[in-house]
Amino acid sequence: MSSLVATILNSLPIMFDVMVLFLFMLIMFGTIATQLLGGQLEKRCIYTNEFGDKFSSFIQDSPGQDFIC
């Protein structure tokens, strides 16, 4: 058990480097996705059917549906 704990403690600096790289990539891809997809979901509406279930739809108002935009 002590060798396992020692191995984990010795690997912490390497895991820190990997975590920094992961966070950098996450921020980069998040920024790119925001730039590419920004404003695409503005016309998204939620409507309910006769049972009260909510669904997402890009369809504009149609008869018989209660839309929440």
Q: Please give the domain count.
A: 2
What summary fits the major beta sheet?
3 strands, antiparallel
User: Which stretches are low in confidence, meaning pLDDT under 50 for 5 or more residues running?
Assistant: none
The radius of gyration over CA amounts to 24 Å
Shape: elongated
Average pLDDT for all residues:
76
String of helices and strands: HEEE
Strand percentage: 15-25%
Content-based structural category: alpha+beta
Within the largest sheet, what's the order of strands?
A: 2-1-3
In total, how many beta strands? 3
How many H/I helices?
1
Helicity, in percent?
A: 40-55%
Q: Report, as a whole number of angstroms, the end-to-end distance.
A: 58 Å
Topology:
Elements: H1 2-37, E1 45-48, E2 54-57, E3 66-68
Antiparallel strand pairs: 1-2, 1-3
Task: Explain the overall architecture.
The protein has one helix at residues 2-37; strands at residues 45-48, 54-57, 66-68. The protein is an alpha+beta fold and 69 residues long. The chain folds into two domains: 1-38; 40-69, no CATH class. The protein has a three-stranded antiparallel β-sheet, with no helix packed on it. A hairpin with a 5-residue loop joins strand 1 and strand 2 (54-57). The radius of gyration is 24 Å and the shape is elongated. The termini are far apart. The model has no long low-confidence stretch (mean pLDDT 76).
